[in-house]
Amino acid sequence: xxxxxxxxxxxxAGLAACAYVYVHYGYMDMRADQPAGRIxxxxxxxxxxxxxxxxxxxxxxxVPPTDANLIDGIRVYKNNxxxxxxxxxxxxxxxxxxxxxxxxxxxKDAPDMPDYQNYWIIRHGVRLTGMPAWEQVLPDSDIxxxxxxxxxxGQLSQLSPEVQGAWKNVAESPAxxxxxxxxxxxxxxxxxxxxxxxxxxxxxxx
Length: 206
What we know:
By secondary structure, the chain is mainly α. It has a domain at 52-172: Cytochrome Bc1 Complex, Chain D, domain 2, CATH 1.10.760. The protein contains eight helices and no strands. The radius of gyration is 25 Å and the shape is elongated.
């Protein structure tokens, strides 16, 4: 029995040493455009779900799924989430191909977790993925509103015409977008002043 226990301890220490060497000396491929290895898939496949099950406190969503709240949630989703998780105009986000593990595409596979778990994930993010923690970016009310909308993404066709219209309108014209003001027409045969300089190219922020 003693020899068996010693063998178990030595074997575990050997595995730990091998893992340390593998990671410490850069043998682990950290590129996001490469598929995860067999060991990573085996250990991490259910790790997030189990972690959320253990850590996310069960609480009701304080934001009722009214049309107004769902429309606000749509705008939050469009402005912050659609670039990775897909939107009405692009159900499959282009950035999805650059993530490992792949990012869930909610228009094809709607989230089915309880609201409190989705809220926990959005608020705190997911380590070792591209999912950031939004608690320092969005107010808590917006996180709950987008959570309320996520719970309805699999039922978009059953939502009110106002909410469906907001989803389509946001897809066509993002929130906050404004039409550029019209430039005044130049007088005919106008010549530039002698000391005038050519206009500088505008720089657009993204």
